[in-house]
Amino acid sequence: MKLTFTRTSALLALALGLTACGGKATFDLGGPVTGLAYPGLVLTNASNGDTVAVAVPTPAASVTSFKLPKTIEYGTAYKVSITAQPIHQTCVLARGAGTAGRLATISIQVDCAVQEFTIGGTVTGLRDVADTTPTGLKITNGADIMAIEINGVYALPTPVAFGKTYGVSIVSQPTGKTCTIANPSGTVNTVATPNPVTTVPVITDPVNNINISCV
Known about the structure:
Elements lengths: L1 H19 L5 E2 L2 E5 L7 E4 L4 E4 L10 E4 L4 E2 L3 E8 L4 E6 L2 E3 L9 E6 L1 E2 L2 E5 L12 E5 L2 E5 L3 E4 L4 E2 L3 E8 L6 E3 L3 E3 L3 E3 L8 E3 L7 E3 L1
Parallel strand pairs: 2-10, 12-22
Antiparallel strand pairs: 1-6, 2-5, 3-4, 3-7, 7-9, 8-10, 11-16, 12-15, 13-14, 13-17, 17-19, 18-22, 20-21
């Protein structure tokens, strides 16, 4: 009987203590991040304005994690979103919204991928109007092969990721002509070009200076 009274008193004291503190469990908002290779990723909980900048792991693109600074109480709604993307990457978020306590822990998934860009340029000296007879001109970048039938702007079918190298070459010359390629190789990088309207440079990533001249 004495033991029962002691245990009941202890449980009552614990309940009173929890009530005094609000009596609610708290939860961290966070989860795994995959593929992050460049800085700039920022996550925000719109429900309370809490925000965190996610550091690039070592080595870059290895699996890491994030955690927002503030915990939330049981029963509190949250809505976490990406408010700033890392440079040269696009990240997507899963399980970012819910109510604390529905599951034992909150795990928000963030997956990042390096952006990809087209590579190409302008063709001159081939022919101005395409017809049913192929010119015979074919170019390649690795396993990517493209037939070109007319003058103008072209882009190879498969984009190249930022920071990766490319090397375009001629697989076959057009019938009766010889073509050469300017700027055939390089690395996909951000290029700042002057803006004719404002003093702010235009930032472009697609490679569009692999020009082909035929004579």
